[in-house]
Specification:
The chain is built from 11 helices and 15 strands. With 372 residues, it is α/β, with parallel strands linked by helices. It is elongated and about 90 Å long. Bound molecules: inosinic acid and magnesium ion (MG).
């Protein structure tokens, strides 16, 4: 997931979970290393944003330690407000203790100042401050920060415990505020016989989108003997599946053909998680994303009837044998289930009832397209 939408705003992947894990590990090591041997520190996390950081941090911390939390609030929306409030204090006896504050992020430093005021009158041995993220360009206080996980630029971030209006805390990477995408990009899905082709052609007119059917792209490239077409053909001739890399490149070059498109309807692509990931990354480079996977849902028995009917007139042998048809559904189900899950996880899966007249179904699809 490269660009996420939270409420009215968009955020782009900024710091990957692996990098966060490295930073946390390094902080835990440094802090342990600087403590006198056998010193048992008490870590105090600043809720809510720090919960993931503290959870990971104390697992990386080697040696005995205690953990406690305070809760303060200073933010609503994306602008820092100056009225920082204390909500919950620490109840432990801190006399003679080494107290280490764990902050998820220090921005203006207002919250930190507040925390400092709470602890400075306590008969503790020493107070240290550690923050996972720090925005050096906005920090306005004199207070020394002992440990900084990573300096970041002054742009609002979410994920790994940090929120935008309470959303985004559960993201495992850090995402940064980004301008709203301009395109409407839709992955259209549906089992064989669901009426995808028919619907795609009216929807592309209605929304001024470009319909990219992978089948057509393959045939075009092979027929015109493009480099990628020739490459794809070597696999097809051997009876092998065309590798994701080749398919993705073909799709990318297809997308690049258009200047200032309003968006695309992807049909027959992505077919695998790795294709979906590649598509996400490719679009994110342009500041764009997949707005949604829209899937036509039709009961199998009805599809079988429709296809058998079609087989009578089209002469397509694969439409004439019920067991062959059922096999294709089986394949569709097993292949698309992971993709459905992939987009569901992003809150980006939209199932649409594919039973009814063509117009009815177009209207149902339009209701979804309008929202995306
Ligand atoms: P400060 O008081 O300006 O240093 O901000 C402290 C608090 O504001 C942090 O503990 C966060 O809860 C919140 N905050 C500051 N910057 C961000 C951000 O980029 N994303 C999410 N929350 C932030
Ligand atoms: Mg905080």
């Amino acid at each position: 997931m490269e660009i996420v939408k939270l409420k009215d705003l968009y955020f782009k992947k900024y710091i990957k979970r692996e990098e966060i894990a490295d930073v946390v590990k390094r902080l835990a090591y440094q802090i342990k290393h600087d403590l006198p041997e056998n010193e048992v520190p008490i870590f105090i996390g600043i809720l809510n944003g720090c919960f993931m950081f503290v959870g990971d941090f104390i697992r990386e911390f080697e040696g005995n330690c205690e953990v406690s939390f305070v809760k303060l609030a200073s933010y609503s929306g994306t602008e820092s407000t100056s009225n920082v409030k204390q909500l919950i204090g620490v109840n432990e006896d801190l006399t003679g203790r080494t107290v280490i504050i764990l902050e998820d992020i220090i921005d203006t430093g207002n919250t930190l100042q507040e925390i400092y005021e709470i602890f400075k009158h306590q008969p503790i041995k020493q107070l240290k401050i550690a923050t996972l993220f720090f925005k050096p360009d906005v920090y306005k206080k004199e207070l020394h920060i002992d440990y900084i996980g990573k300096n970041i630029e002054d742009r609002f971030i979410v994920g790994y415990g940090l929120d935008y209006d309470e959303y985004g805390r559960n993201l495992d990477s850090i995402y940064q505020l980004t301008p709203a995408p301009k395109m409407k990009n839709i992955v259209l899905f549906g089992p064989p016989g669901a009426g995808k082709g028919t619907q795609a052609s009216s929807l592309k007119e209605k929304y001024d989108l470009i319909h990219i059917s992978t089948g057509d792209v393959f045939r075009f490239n092979i027929k015109n003997e493009t480099e990628l077409g020739k490459l794809a053909k070597t696999y097809i001739d051997r009876g092998d599946l065309v590798p994701d890399e080749v398919t993705i490149k073909m799709l990318e070059s297809e997308v690049e053909k258009y200047e200032n498109p309003k968006g695309f309807i992807f049909d027959g692509f992505p077919r695998t998680i790795s294709q979906a990931d590649a598509l996400d990354k490719f679009l994110a480079k342009k500041g764009e994303r997949i707005n949604g996977m829209v899937a036509l849902e039709v009961p199998q028995d009805l599809l079988v009837k429709r296809l058998l009917e079609r087989g009578k007139t089209s002469g397509r042998s694969d439409d004439q044998d019920e067991s062959k048809i059922r096999n294709r559904f089986e394949e569709y189900e097993t292949k698309t289930a992971p993709l459905k899950h992939y987009y569901e996880k992003q809150n980006n899966y939209y199932g649409v009832d594919g039973v009814g007249s063509i117009e009815d179904i177009t209207n149902r699809l339009s209701d979804v397209f309008d929202k995306l």
